[in-house]
Amino acid sequence: MRIYWRSYCGGFREALRSYGPADPAPALLGGYRHADLIMGSTVGEVKTGRMDQPEYVDALFTQLLTYILLACHDGRPINDVVVYLARYGVLIRYLGQDLLEETAGRQADAVAAGSELAAVIRASETLGGVCSPGAGGRPAAAA
User: Fold this and answer.
1) Which of 41, 37, 49 shows the shortest CA–CA distance to 13?
2) What domains, with CATH codes, occur in the chain?
């Protein structure tokens, strides 16, 4: 744990603060998803685990894309995403729109795509799916 703390205090804290005041664990889509942080117009994700397998990286990008889309759907436009890979002492920044368009392979409308994703997630609730608020060990947001 000391190694992570030294890494964080060694410059990453100031870098993360430069994105603006942090909103920790903001509920997105009424609690269906929770990002680690939203700092101004930046989604922040902190990872302490391994990122040495393609499936871990794929899962991270799916997570980031979900947060961008749901934040935009909730009226919180996102310009950037930053990922702090504490195990490796690395801070990565992506432009949100570039990440969306590279993934889609074309121009992307984050608000429209966020609305489509929100509909899919909400529809899964009626089926009792894993997308329901509180699934995956996270409590649902208070109404």
Assistant:
1) 37
2) 2-132 (3.90.1570)
